[in-house]
Amino acid sequence: MGQTTTSLSSNKENSEGQQQTSASTENDFQFLIGRLENLPDSARKLFNLGKQYLTTGSKNRDSGGNDFSSLFQPYLPLHTDGDISTEDINSTLRETGTGMLDTPLRKSAPLHHFQTYIQWKAAQDLNNFYSLCLPKRHTIYLQPINTFPEFVHSYRLKNQSLELNLFETVQAFLQVFFCGLEVLLLPPVMLDNTKQEVRSRVHPVMESQQLCINDLYPFLQRLLPPNGLCIMGISWTDIYPEGHNFVLGEASVQHQAAAISFGRFEFSRFDAATHRDVVEINGAILWKLLKSSSHELCHLLGLQHCTFFQCAMNESSSVPEAMEQPLFLCPVCLRKLQRACGFDVLERYVLLRKFLTGVADQVSDEAKVQECLVWLDQCISYLNS
Ligand SMILES: [Zn+2]
Ligand SMILES: [Zn+2]
């Protein structure tokens, strides 16, 4: 296969002056986020903020004098050792040479090696073309699998006038995160061990039961109602992909199915003497459910891992790393989700703030929820300014 010549760095090398540079920058931006003319002012404002970051780097953010530098940060994997200063990040970015987009894209690979909005949209348009004859599907289904401990059943989130059980809490959050689509909860389903539809094993070290996610995909796909866009299983029992130890959640676009589990006690190094199972639903467990469910469902809407900003769609190599990542999407990923769901960006942030304010009252042990609210306040005030 021949070397492609469409990289952004070659655009830069061929530049014939400032005018062409600006035109290239505009094209690069459209490739990343698409055209914005038909969007409301607030959405354009947010996506243009992404443009400012992507095209001028960290030096020139927000010409209006406001500092919104904390809204979006360039992507750096969190498993890097030690604290990293902004200067370190910038010098790394300069050294890696990323062409026109010199701040967030720290890798030297061309832009089209990562999933831009235009690439995502092309894949979605193709999918939509093949499903033209099928009924319109707007519903995400949540499917609890097997049994759960009593404290899971008895959990209640008192949110304003509502009282929600654990699965209803996840449903209510996803209804806001994916607003524009419908999110419905199916009654729990029990796996029939005699049919051996889903392989299970006992983990050799932890000695706990695990379900094979590769078998869960077709199992869940068969449960997807005809109007279902996709389905996500929620399991207390550990899940594992073939040939691997454990996974917090995973999605199969081919099956339009995903699964997450939340019963595993998190440990940095397993010690049989001190190991115990999760014994209560606290803020950390709730956070894990919100994080993993929204991430996996975004995969089912065609979003791949994000390498542009710190983002809910960053890849993670461990559960603690996944839990550290943002709950919210960067401008590039948000543009994809906005197109998939058809929501108003500002309205969705307001709804997210309302939901998380209700959660924050209940999970004072979870600082990440408070951080989300600070971020939402800052973002909403920026979009309203
Ligand atoms: Zn992922
Ligand atoms: Zn992203």
Structural account:
The structure is a single chain. The chain has 385 residues and is α/β, with parallel strands linked by helices. The longest helix has 18 residues, at 283-300. Strands 4-1-7-10-9 form a five-stranded mixed β-sheet, sandwiched between helices. It has a three-stranded mixed β-sheet with strand order 5-6-8. It has helices at 8-13, 18-33, 41-56, 86-96, 117-130, 150-154, 166-177, 213-223, 283-300, 319-324, 331-341, 345-362, 367-384; strands spanning 139-145, 157-159, 162-164, 182-185, 200-202, 209-212, 228-235, 238-240, 249-252, 257-261. The chain is globular, with a radius of gyration of 22 Å. The protein is built from 13 helices and ten strands. It binds zinc ion (2 copies).
Entry summary:
This protein has 385 residues and is of the alpha/beta class. It is built from 13 helices and 10 strands. Helix 7 (166-177) packs across helix 9, helix 7 packs antiparallel against helix 12 and helix 12 packs antiparallel against helix 13 (367-384).
Q: Count the strands?
A: 10
Counting DSSP H or I runs of 4 or more residues, the number of helices is 13
Note the main sheet. 5 strands, mixed
**CATH fold field value of the domain at 136-267 and 275-341:** Collagenase (Catalytic Domain)
What coarse outline follows from CA principal-axis ratios? globular
Rg result: 22 Å
Low-confidence stretches: 1-18, 58-65, 78-108
CATH level-1 class of the domain at 136-267 and 275-341: Alpha Beta
Strand order of the largest sheet: 4-1-7-10-9
As a percent range, the share of helical residues equals 40-55%
- Roughly what fraction of the amino acids lie in strands? 5-15%
**Mean of residue pLDDT values:** 79
Q: Look at the helices and sheets and give the structural class.
A: alpha/beta
Bound molecules: zinc ion
Q: What order do the SSEs take from the amino end to the carboxyl end, as H and E?
A: HHHHHEHEEHEEEHEEEEHHHHH
The CATH fourth-level homologous superfamily of the domain at 136-267 and 275-341: Collagenase (Catalytic Domain)
User: Can you name the CATH architecture of the domain at 136-267 and 275-341?
Assistant: 3-Layer(aba) Sandwich
GO molecular function: metal ion binding; metallopeptidase activity
Keywords: Hydrolase, Metal-binding, Metalloprotease, Protease, Zinc
GO biological process, one term: proteolysis
Organism: Elysia marginata
